[in-house]
């Protein structure tokens, strides 16, 4: 316990170790510190247990391949996307209904994105191409504004107004577009610009299902957290509901100045469409909160499915993630070829041996080698990747050579990105940010297709809304049933929460 003593802290060894536990939530990502004060790698198996998510298994990959007729994405095969909730149900929905919605997002904390930020988007893009489904991308300028101001003790610093974060969101949108999304199938929005209409009604209803105590429990808020940040989570949650974006599905919203009566009510048909969220596992606490409330909405939604990734390792090694605020930890999408080369050569943690002789005789460890790790995310060719690992292990390949291979691959990826990015102008961005009916086919032969746009199914499924916007008889009945169900669920949840609190109290007393 040398480190404890050195800091002059009393010898409460157990607590000290606990304090250095890994901490993963939307606002913290750290692998923790061991007893000697060294940064530890994030323990993802522990996280699976702690969060209660499911591991993504070979059986899932097989089923994915069988349902889509395509090989599982390399990031799934190589375990970067490693866990899920109800991923099976998404595959079921695709087989049965023919479609689902993809939803992901980004907090625009600065105008530039790094390599780690591109990972969930690249993965999402390929899922979208494989399934041919609609995708929404939420840029949370509001979240980042509120979070930053909160972090600064309520002070609004220069360059950190709401407008500054909106501007970051626009820059990030262009970066995301440059990854190659299709504007006919993809809607990108910032909260400051889009939130209103049916989205805001869903948000308001969701806020009514969330108490301060619950938000505090999920995110560690305190009495001095600004109320904007406390309420923000509801927005990130309802962004997963297709009913928050009626126009993308050919339904009417109800916004000034149109005020079209066909959009007066949120559209119940849209609440039947399932959603899959690909994201890094730090976002899971939001979506646990979401899943607990999906079925309590006036129009209940099926529980949102998740596919969760690990973090892209920092250049310094597996203890942390690439961070925009630490320039030496990250490769930025705006870096020049020589910056990429220098960062990898100087900062990338090596799994190799101290000396050339030792490396030749004993071989290195690709599993902790950062250059190899990056290749495992960005190199498509399985055979080459296996070959690199084998040669590194045997000592045939040296650290410098592995770095060189990595540098070449990343330079190629970043240069191609920058070439596309230079062509994304304001008009291109507008095309993605305009709410319009998206064009997608989904599964060409579903078992029981979901109704498409209202025009295509007049008279069936959702009954035509009344001109005065009031509920039809059928809708009133359905609302009553839904309300009764929601009340029952709420009661059950309350009871469960009380039981959990009771249990905790007993455990504390026993300790
Ligand atoms: N809170 C996320 C961030 O800070 C942004 C976000 C919003 C998001 N919705 C999402 C991320 C859905 C993943 C999936 O980056």
Automatic annotation (TrEMBL):
<dbReference type="InterPro" id="IPR002306">
    <property type="entry name" value="Trp-tRNA-ligase"/>
</dbReference>
<feature type="compositionally biased region" description="Low complexity">
    <location>
        <begin position="453"/>
        <end position="462"/>
    </location>
</feature>
<dbReference type="InterPro" id="IPR002305">
    <property type="entry name" value="aa-tRNA-synth_Ic"/>
</dbReference>
<keyword id="KW-0547">Nucleotide-binding</keyword>
<dbReference type="InterPro" id="IPR014729">
    <property type="entry name" value="Rossmann-like_a/b/a_fold"/>
</dbReference>
<feature type="compositionally biased region" description="Basic and acidic residues">
    <location>
        <begin position="463"/>
        <end position="478"/>
    </location>
</feature>
<dbReference type="GO" id="GO:0005524">
    <property type="term" value="F:ATP binding"/>
</dbReference>
<dbReference type="Pfam" id="PF00579">
    <property type="entry name" value="tRNA-synt_1b"/>
</dbReference>
<keyword id="KW-0067">ATP-binding</keyword>
<dbReference type="InterPro" id="IPR001412">
    <property type="entry name" value="aa-tRNA-synth_I_CS"/>
</dbReference>
<dbReference type="GO" id="GO:0005737">
    <property type="term" value="C:cytoplasm"/>
</dbReference>
<dbReference type="GO" id="GO:0006436">
    <property type="term" value="P:tryptophanyl-tRNA aminoacylation"/>
</dbReference>
<keyword id="KW-0436">Ligase</keyword>
<dbReference type="GO" id="GO:0004830">
    <property type="term" value="F:tryptophan-tRNA ligase activity"/>
</dbReference>
<keyword id="KW-0030">Aminoacyl-tRNA synthetase</keyword>
<keyword id="KW-0648">Protein biosynthesis</keyword>
<comment type="similarity">
    <text>Belongs to the class-I aminoacyl-tRNA synthetase family.</text>
</comment>
<feature type="region of interest" description="Disordered">
    <location>
        <begin position="439"/>
        <end position="511"/>
    </location>
</feature>
<protein>
    <recommendedName>
        <fullName>Tryptophan--tRNA ligase, cytoplasmic</fullName>
        <ecNumber>6.1.1.2</ecNumber>
    </recommendedName>
</protein>
<feature type="compositionally biased region" description="Basic and acidic residues">
    <location>
        <begin position="485"/>
        <end position="511"/>
    </location>
</feature>
């Amino acid at each position: 316990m040398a480190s404890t003593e050195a800091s002059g802290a009393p010898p409460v060894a157990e607590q000290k170790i606990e304090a250095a536990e890994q901490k993963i939530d939307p606002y913290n990502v750290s692998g923790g510190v061991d007893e000697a004060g060294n940064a530890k790698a994030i323990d993802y198996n522990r996280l699976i247990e702690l969060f209660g998510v499911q591991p993504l298994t070979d059986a899932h990959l097989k089923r994915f391949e069988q349902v889509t007729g395509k090989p599982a994405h390399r990031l799934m095969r190589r375990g970067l996307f490693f866990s899920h909730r109800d991923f099976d149900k998404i595959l079921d929905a695709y087989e049965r209904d023919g479609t689902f919605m993809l939803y992901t997002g980004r907090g625009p904390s600065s105008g530039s994105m790094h390599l780690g930020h591109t990972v969930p988007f690249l993965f999402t893009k390929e899922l979208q191409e494989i399934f041919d489904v609609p995708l929404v991308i939420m840029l949370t300028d509001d979240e980042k504004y509120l979070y930053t101001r909160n972090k600064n003790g309520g002070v609004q610093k220069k360059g950190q107004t709401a407008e500054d974060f909106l501007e970051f969101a626009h820059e990030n949108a262009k970066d995301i577009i440059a990854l190659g999304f299709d504007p006919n199938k993809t809607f990108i929005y910032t909260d400051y610009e889009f939130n209103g209409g049916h989205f805001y009604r869903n948000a308001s209803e969701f806020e009514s299902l969330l108490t301060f105590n619950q938000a505090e429990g999920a995110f560690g808020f305190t009495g001095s957290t600004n109320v904007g940040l406390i309420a923000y989570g509801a927005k990130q949650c309802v962004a997963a509901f297709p009913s928050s974006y009626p126009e993308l599905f050919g339904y009417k919203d109800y916004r000034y100045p149109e005020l079209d009566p066909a959009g007066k009510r949120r559209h119940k048909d849209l609440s039947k469409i399932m959603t899959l969220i690909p994201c890094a596992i730090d976002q899971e606490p939001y979506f646990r909160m979401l899943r607990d409330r999906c079925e309590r909405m006036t129009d209940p939604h099926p529980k949102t499915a998740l596919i969760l990734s690990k973090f892209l390792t920092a250049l310094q090694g597996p203890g942390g993630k690439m961070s925009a605020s630490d320039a030496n930890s990250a490769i930025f999408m705006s870096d020049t070829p020589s910056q990429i080369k220098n960062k990898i050569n100087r900062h990338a943690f090596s799994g190799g041996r101290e000396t050339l002789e030792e490396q030749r005789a004993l071989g290195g460890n690709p599993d902790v080698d950062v250059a190899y790790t990056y290749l495992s995310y960005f190199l498509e060719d399985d055979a080459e990747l296996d070959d690199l690992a084998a040669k590194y292990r045997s000592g045939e390949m040296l650290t410098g050579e592995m770095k060189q291979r990595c540098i070449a691959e990343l330079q190629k990826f970043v240069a191609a990105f920058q070439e596309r990015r230079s062509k994304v102008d304001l008009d291109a961005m507008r095309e993605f940010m305009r709410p319009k009916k998206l064009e997608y086919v989904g599964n060409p032969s579903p078992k029981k297709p979901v109704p498409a746009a209202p025009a295509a199914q007049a008279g069936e499924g959702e009954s035509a809304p009344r001109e005065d916007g009031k509920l039809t008889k059928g809708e009133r009945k359905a609302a009553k049933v839904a309300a009764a169900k929601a009340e029952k669920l709420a009661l059950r949840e309350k009871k469960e929460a009380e039981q959990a609190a009771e249990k905790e109290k007993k455990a504390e007393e026993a300790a």
